[in-house]
Write a structure and sequence with these properties.
Elements (H helix, E strand, L loop, with lengths): L2 E5 L6 E5 L4 E5 L2 H7 L4 E7 L10 E6 L5 E6 L6 E6 L5 E5 L13 E3 L17 E2 L1
Parallel strand pairs: 3-9, 9-10
Antiparallel strand pairs: 1-2, 3-4, 4-8, 5-6, 6-7
Length: 132
């Protein structure tokens, strides 16, 4: 079974993931752009039972544009988001792919908030991204 380790910038908070993610996606919503400081976020979603507890985190909760909650867990020392959960995906944990620091991590298959895409960004994947 595949094992991946995600960690924050300072290494104090780690999450061990077993198996393959249920979903790999990019998000172009304004909140993800703010959270990452980038044009989109690149995320891997696992079943909660696939992810070992990452250690002590702080969290903040916000409401999406559609009115659903999202809870972001981050390292209290470095501020790095290590994982998050959203109301629409119960029993699932989403980890920013950058936390794995793995250039071989599989490419995304899904994209959301395409209407917020920067015109200069072009995702190059083996298969076209499915919009959800």
């Amino acid at each position: 079974m595949k094992r991946r380790e995600a960690q924050c910038a300072c290494g104090a908070v780690k999450a061990i993931c077993r198996g393959e993610p249920a979903r790999i996606s990019i998000c172009r919503c304004l909140n993800c752009k703010r959270r990452t400081g980038s044009a989109f976020s690149y995320n891997a979603t696992f079943g909660a039972d696939q992810v070992s507890p990452p250690g002590e985190t702080s969290f903040y909760e916000r409401t999406s544009e559609e009115g659903h909650w999202a809870r972001f867990h981050f390292c209290p020392a470095s501020g790095t988001t290590i994982w998050y959960e959203i109301e629409l995906r119960p029993n699932m944990v989403t980890i920013p792919v950058g936390a794995f620091a793995d250039p071989q991590f599989p490419e995304p298959a899904f994209a959301v908030y395409s209407e917020r895409k920067h015109e200069w960004v072009e995702a190059r994947t083996a298969e076209p991204l499915e919009e959800q």
